[in-house]
Design brief:
The protein contains ten helices and 14 strands. The chain has 348 residues and is an alpha/beta fold. The longest helix has 17 residues.
């Protein structure tokens, strides 16, 4: 259920509605817009449906929400959410604010000197966040699994040195507390999208979460996973389309470009795209990145490596620094040249 307050409704009227919701065992999610304040009722709405909220002072209208993902639904936050990452020792980055956010770095942190070299180049090229894996989920148990805590330390040091907030993947519940001191943003990877214990654990923190779509998951399943995080109190979720598994063998995965506008229509959460994992081949990454921006993505996350032939993980899909620099220029040029999307349903 969504409760829309009247324009100019007082804080006392808002507090009264919230108290009624909480009195019946539900959570109240308050979203303040420019002209209206909206309250989302989270929980078993059968407990409060008989209440005449329409008659409560300050309430303009009451609307049911039929989607199973209530906190992530656009109805609860029509103007779209902005997720803030960083601050303190690194700049604050706002994802979903209207500008294009670029996350870049190696697939895996391999050593400190190499990471510094890559971090310096992506910073100079216009990246806003530094990505790098310290705990790597690999198909083979014999493949490089990451440097663990040492990798997190190298990542934190590089981020602070070059002024970049850092994002890194957390694979299980036990690693959440370990990562808290090092990362500015948790990444929940495609293979863990429905690891509900992990989703709830990162949801109990205040760190923003980059949530990747599973390789065989629907859009609704992705949004339900976001709901798990948000239901624990953490609303700083960024959705990531990274390609899904289809019958096609020409690419590593098939990038579902249509998921970008669909997600933005259904949800208020920012949406970014990972063209690297979808492509699996470096030459294809720029084309998919440009398509993502044209489709309305709020940002991209790209793998960059100065010596991809020696990379310990996914070197085939990593861009060289010079290629990445050209791509960022082209993405920004494309973004600035796009006409206002007056036909976009999430803008109406």
């Amino acid at each position: 259920m969504i409760i829309v307050m009247k324009q100019g409704a007082s804080d006392d009227q808002l507090a009264h509605v919230v108290s009624l919701i909480e009195k019946h065992g539900l959570k109240a999610h308050v979203s303040r817009g420019v002209e209206r304040t909206i309250i989302g009722c989270i929980g078993d709405e059968a407990r409060i449906e008989p209440l005449p909220f329409q008659a409560v002072s300050g309430v303009e209208r009451v609307m049911p929400v039929v989607k199973p993902y209530r906190m992530a639904a656009r109805e609860t936050h029509p103007q779209g959410s902005v997720v803030k990452v960083g601050g303190g020792s690194v700049p604050l980055v706002e994802i979903g604010s209207g500008s294009l956010t670029v996350m870049a770095g190696p697939c895996a942190v391999e050593n400190a000197p190499l990471l510094d070299e890559i971090a310096s180049s992506v910073k100079d090229s216009g990246a806003h966040l530094l990505r790098g894996g310290a705990f790597k989920p690999r198909t083979s148990p014999y493949a490089f699994q990451g440097l663990g805590v040492d990798g997190l330390k190298f990542l934190r040091e590089a981020g602070d040195r070059f002024g970049l907030p850092v994002v890194s993947e957390v694979r299980n519940v036990r690693q959440v507390e370990t990562c808290l001191d090092y990362v500015d943003m948790f990444q929940v990877g495609a293979r863990n999208m429905q690891n509900f214990d992990l989703l709830m654990e990162v949801g109990r923190t205040t760190k923003p979460v980059l949530l990747k779509r599973g390789l065989a998951s629907t859009v609704e399943e992705l949004l339900m996973s976001a709901e798990y995080v948000m239901s624990m109190g953490n609303h700083g979720v960024v959705l990531c389309e990274r390609g899904i598994r289809t019958f096609e063998k020409a690419t590593r995965f098939t990038l579902d470009v249509s998921a970008v506008p669909i997600l933005k229509r259904l949800s208020h959460l920012p949406v970014i795209v990972d063209p690297s994992h979808a492509a699996g081949q470096a030459w294809l990454v720029p084309f998919l990145a440009l398509a993502a921006v044209a489709a309305g993505a709020d940002g991209i996350i790209v793998e960059v490596h100065s010596r991809p032939e020696d990379a310990l993980c996914d070197g085939d899909q990593a861009l060289l620094p010079d290629t990445f620099r050209s791509l960022v220029h082209d993405l920004n040029s494309l973004r600035s040249s796009l006409p206002p999307a007056s036909y976009a349903p999430w803008l109406s």
